[in-house]
Design a protein that fits this description.
2 copies of one chain form a homodimer. The first copy, chain A, is mostly helical. Chain A has 4 domains: 227 residues, Clc chloride channel (Orthogonal Bundle), CATH 1.10.3080; 244 residues, Clc chloride channel; 76 residues, no CATH class; 103 residues, no CATH class. The first copy, chain A, is 53% helix and 7% strand. In chain A, the strands form 7 sheets. Chain A has a 3-stranded mixed β-sheet. In chain A, helix 26 links the parallel strand 14 and strand 15. Chain A is elongated and about 100 Å long. The relative contact order of chain A is 0.13. At the A-B interface, helix 2, helix 3, helix 9, helix 10 and helix 18 of A face helix 2, helix 3, helix 9, helix 10 and helix 18 of B. Chains A, B: Keywords: CBS domain, Chloride, Chloride channel, Ion channel, Ion transport, Membrane, Repeat, Transmembrane, Transmembrane helix, Transport, Voltage-gated channel. Chains A, B: GO terms for molecular function: voltage-gated chloride channel activity. Chains A, B: It comes from Nelumbo nucifera (Sacred lotus).
């Protein structure tokens, strides 16, 4: 894991003793925090995003030149992009469902028909080999075409919205692989979900639209020039992630809340409205497409195609006596959920060891888990005894073919196999069976228990595979089975329907694992379409989250940490109050003069990987050293590329500056910027000068070196900075002490410098 | 209106011409922005809140002294307070309903009985005089006991959460008057609602609990000492406002979203969870109390007591053909809503003129509006012709007594008066009638039209009276009647039930007037208990908000501006990009030396109303003038009170400092702080010194004077500052140029200085 490198940072013996010598010593050391992270299944370099307004002359000129028309165009574009994100997310969400229902459905129809003819071995062969081929394809494209598409994508998107840019997560290739890979992975009967991949897909669409198309493949549109900054793209990606949840669960309000509660680090009212608009578009697109499919033109995609578990209100009356079992459900859900997170983290650690051995191992792992899953799904139902069909069943029993509550499997006519009803079905159908009301006697409690245990562990082992996969659906499935089990145990002591127990069980496990509150509550309400469940779901979620929070963090945060993504928390750790900014800022600091030699700039850019450099006016330009501002690496590279050189050290004339347009300096999207090594500078040019003043951000945010780390974090995180300049308390030989970046606020960096803080720490 | 004073600020002739002379001239002028605002119905002085971490030695010591136990105690207290806020808000919400239903219900029972005996004049007499007495009482207590309780309270609470402290809004007196006044105002059959007063009530409870009880009446608890800062109280008040909506509409999720979308200026995930917990408590308390009342122990409080309009799902099937009328509904709703806001603003302006004439006029106005309303409610139904009862009515027709769809009024047996069913009812019952399904033929379209017009205008005239009043319920009522009217017009062209049209009409008018999206959507869903309406409500809200936004702002923002509350917007106006911080900062600046004479401190505190003063170390203490930090007026007053004087100008020893505890400097709650004039300082002491260093915030946030106003606003608003120090670009005679406060960012102040910016401005 990338973070572990930090343990090697030299631990000062008595660090809180603020000896001046130590300070000097430390300042000459550089931050050893890792600048790479696992993105998808590969290790990639990561960059920070920059939400600061760069106030240099060019930016100001560009702003002044914008008239009413451009501002209107900008606003219009914002809404159009949200609209397009909604349309695409809706279409892809629907297409995803359609494909899964048809691929998986076809598989089950063929196997079921073989079972009817009692060709069990052949049925297993077809079943297992289909799953094998499908997951093989999924892991092959993920591994070799777009490793960034592996996994859920939530940690990467969440980190992006926090200001961490992993270039490949939003590429066109990732998008395509994510869509196709998710469809195949879900179709392969693995215990993986489609919700999180759809969130990543939605964000990816938003990012691609926001940067005007794919840069790599040259499909770009010019009319998007006002979106060339990280702030606008961040907003759009937030809307995209909301659209993803809306598309996967047909839960528009839930999607907005999910984006707000789980994904976004910065949020404002206007964004709420835009994401609401986006999810409304998704809902309308889905509604329209489902209406079309209801006329039967979509193959095996039935009315139940889009996950939507109608639990009608009849079963939702409850009394005060039902509260204790519900609370117990919450407590157990919290424990199971936090244990789920714990196990998942261990498994992911093991997987990452395996992955380091080579690509072949990844594919091998995916295929063997698939084979094992096929064996479980096909083998375990044989353990169950056949049960006679209930006389008052609301539907055909046994059902022959794809979906339905009562699977025939190997049973004689008039009987059904309750375990097959759960295992030998798509995950969505299994959830629907568990949630269905009036089926209290359908399942034997041993069957439910076997299903729960299998689900719990297979869900954990299936997540980390080299294929797009989500946790939402498996966790709902596991939680629903555990809820139903509790319902069976309660027996006649409770008036609640077992379908309702299943819903509450799903809520408790979701709360224990994902730790969201309002958004999960609304998603579950929209999923079950029953508002009367609200108080119970609220109670269960609060209890399970509280219980689980005493053990560990939410699952996405755990994975994010495991991946080494430098996520910036909103709250400061207690030890940050005791350290000042001066204590952690590291050197050596690279500065430029206001008018700097080209050679120096080239050398510094080649020697360091920094992205911002203080510009200092030295005497004789000014009376004393004065901080002129901060210049960005990206802007310096543009200057070098455009050869904005002066033969003598003088200030640039305004005529000279006309060769640049603000657009030259705009950031065109996430991804690798121009490399310094690709720029040719002749030896002659090396001795020329660049006047950095017009290109310098003349008013960077600064803090004084005596400020506590906690207080500076509030500024850094609140405003969304990439660089924070530290200035000395008293006028000094230098007007700037150092630069703080995201990595300087990472607990592992600070605790590496001051190990004695650890004992004072503790969570929260 | 207070703002108008700013128009007198001297308009520089060519302000954007950055002449140095002009700059000096302006810096010697002071900010003329008003420091008072309308709070409730009276003009009060307002202060800013301070969310900055004050890093002086005392604060640091206090933090270091906190062990694990104190931190746990703090967290435990936070949750306990949320729990208590939920309990109290739920109880008060329920009690409010109970009282209204019984007072208003009794009134209608008595009048209806008189009507049955054909004693019409006596009935009118009882009806009008009850209304008159009740509103008289309400306006008397509001005017003479707690003027801050007048109106909805939403603008004041919203401003508080933005950092504006109006002392009296959260006092115990205001709380009591708000509760009693709201009950009486709603019972008086005026077109006012209870939702917003309940939000104010919830916030008030939260604030009182957060400061450990009422300071004025000495009911305070000591165990709350960690809550002695504005940040924690802000969080609690946010939870309180969520609890208010949850209590009034039994909409826990809607309450959370309302607090987030409309009320809060700062928000983070942890707060979402806390407010969700609070509203969950409210929901459970309400459920429990309603269960108790269902056994009939609550007088006239029936099952319908808590506003909850069950629109069952049967009526919620719709087709693509129903979309156009729904869109039209949205467009008209947007226009009507923005016109509502426009008219309301005019009426409030007129009212404030009247109010300036004296208290008697306030009460006179309330009483005359009440009389006029009584005349309308009793008189207009006589215009309607009696209609024969439908044969298939689901309930008794005509209903005799309080609630029910078919009011008898003056009609012969077997007939009902459709206009009386709307007018001669509580507002809640009228809404329930309008929302009810299967009653398409109940109302004549002329009746609905008459009701709509009356409602629309009476709602506008009733809001600004000197009594607690809300807009939510009257807007729902008006919108529902307009929606039903559209439904009648559509006739057989639409398959939608007219009850559904009423819901959508209410949504459109709410969207057009309040301009919320997600929160209104969820509140309406929780209110109507029908999730299938979601896509339609979303569509209507989006359309009506979009249409209305082209005309004016949302109603609360309009009222807030009218009241002169200095609300700090999150986004910067375009002209703020063209002005630098140095352009707007005003003087004269009052600074202190690190070791200052008592006389100077006393004189400065008496001469100015500033709340923060830069502390500068001059030679010989340092080599050159150095900014030591910022000292707060409140802390200076503590020092003067505690007589922390030194006979010679020297640095304080640590022994000397032991006489203070961090608790001395804690801010104990909103409200007036100690006045400088109450502190006795002898002539002898006047010549002594105070060492300000240990009490100075040594690391205030600073910006450089060349930073654009827009960029500094991001810092100021993002971090929630009260004072922002402006430092010079180059080392200078003074290390600080000035201090920016909230008032310096107000558009009226900036546009007063630079009137030419106005033309470049425009909304958004």
């Amino acid at each position: 894991m990338p973070m572990e490198a930090n343990d090697e940072a030299p631990p000062p013996t008595e660090p809180l003793l603020d000896s001046h010598q130590l300070l000097l010593l430390r300042r000459s050391a550089s931050n050893t925090t890792s600048q790479v992270a696992f993105v998808g299944s590969n290790v990639c370099p990561i960059e920070s995003l920059d939400y600061e307004i760069i106030e240099n002359d060019f930016f100001k000129q560009d702003w002044r030149s914008r008239g009413k028309v451009q501002i209107l165009q900008y606003i219009f574009m914002k809404w159009t992009l949200c609209f397009l994100v909604g349309i695409f997310a809706g279409l892809i969400g629907f297409f995803n469902n359609l494909a899964v229902e048809n691929i998986a459905g076809m598989k089950f129809v063929i196997t079921s028909n073989m079972m009817l003819e009692r060709r069990y071995a052949a049925a297993f062969g077809v079943f297992a080999s289909t799953n094998f081929v499908v997951i093989l394809f999924s892991s092959l494209i993920t591994t070799f075409i777009a490793p960034a598409a592996a996994g859920s994508g939530i940690p990467e998107v969440k980190a992006y919205l926090n200001g961490v840019d992993a270039p490949r997560i939003f590429s066109l290739r990732t998008l395509v692989v994510k869509i196709v890979g998710s469809i195949t992975a879900v179709s392969s009967s693995l215990f993986v979900g489609k919700a999180e991949p759809l969130v990543h897909t939605g964000s990816c669409i938003a990012s691609l639209l926001g940067q005007g198309g794919s840069k790599k493949y040259g499909i770009t549109w010019g009319w998007i020039r006002f979106f060339n900054n990280d702030r606008d793209r961040r907003d759009l990606v937030t809307c995209g992630s909301a659209a993803g949840i809306a598309a996967s669960f047909r839960a528009p309000v839930g999607g907005v809340l999910f984006a707000f509660e789980e994904m976004a680090s910065w949020w404002r009212s206007a964004l709420l409205w835009k994401s609401f608009f986006t999810t409304a578009v998704v809902a309308i697109v889905l509604q329209g497409l489902v209406d079309i499919c209801n006329s039967g033109k979509c193959g095996l995609f039935g009315k139940e195609g889009l996950i939507m578990f109608d639990v009608t209100s009849a079963s939702a009356t409850y009394y005060l006596a039902d509260v204790p079992p519900v609370l117990v459900l919450g407590v157990i859900g919290g424990i199971l959920g936090s244990f789920y997170n714990f196990l998942l983290e261990r498994v992911l650690r093991i997987y990452s060891f395996i992955y380091e051995k080579g690509y072949a191992y990844r594919i091998l792992l995916a295929c063997s888990i698939s084979l094992f899953t096929s064996c479980c799904l096909f083998g375990l139902p044989w353990l169950a005894t056949c049960r006679p069909c209930p006389t008052n069943a609301g539907e055909a029993c046994p059902t022959i073919g794809r979906s339905g509550n009562y699977k025939k499997f190997q049973c004689p006519p008039g009987h059904y196999n309750d375990l097959a009803s759960l295992f030998f079905n798509t995950n969505e159908d299994a959830i629907r069976n568990l949630f269905s009301k009036g089926t209290d006697t359908e399942f034997h409690y041993i069957s439910i228990l076997v299903f729960f245990v299998t689900c719990y562990f297979l869900g954990i082992f299936s997540y980390g595979l080299a294929a797009p996969s989500g946790l939402f659906v498996p966790v709902i499935l596991t939680g629903a089975s555990y809820g139903r089990f509790v319902g069976l145990l309660m027996g006649s002591h409770s008036n609640l329907d077992h379908g309702l127990f299943a819903v509450l069980g799903a809520a408790s496990l979701l709360g224990g694992s994902m730790r969201m509150t309002v958004s999960l509550c609304v998603i579950l309400l929209e999923l079950t379409n029953n508002l009367l469940l609200l108080p119970m779901i609220m109670m269960v979620l609060l209890v399970s989250k509280t219980v689980a929070d005493t053990f560990n963090q939410n699952i996405y945060d755990i994975i994010m940490k495991l991946k080494g993504l430098p996520y910036l928390e909103a709250h400061a750790e207690p030890y940050m109050r005791q350290l000042t900014v001066g204590d952690v800022v590291t050197g050596p600091l690279q500065c430029f003069n206001g008018i700097e030699k080209v050679r120096n700039i080239v050398n510094v850019l080649k020697a360091t990987g920094h992205h911002g450099f203080p510009v200092i006016d030295q005497p004789p330009v000014s009376d004393s050293p004065v901080l002129s501002g901060l210049v960005l690496r990206a802007h310096l590279i543009v200057l070098l590329k455009k050869k904005a050189f002066l033969s003598t050290p003088m200030l640039t004339s305004s005529d000279f500056m006309k060769q640049f347009s603000a657009n030259d300096f705009a950031k065109r999207g996430s991804g690798n910027n121009e490399d310094i090594y690709n720029i040719e500078v002749t030896e002659e040019e090396m001795d020329m000068f660049i006047d950095l003043h017009p290109f310098t951000n003349a008013s960077p945010y600064t803090v004084v070196e005596t400020m506590s780390l906690a207080k500076s974090l509030i500024l850094f995180r609140g405003v969304g900075l990439r660089h924070l300049l530290v200035v000395p308390k008293t006028s000094n030989w230098s007007p700037v002490v150092g630069i703080l970046t995201r990595h300087d606020f990472m607990p592992e960096h600070i605790l590496g410098l001051y190990p004695s803080c650890k004992r004072a720490g503790g969570r929260k």
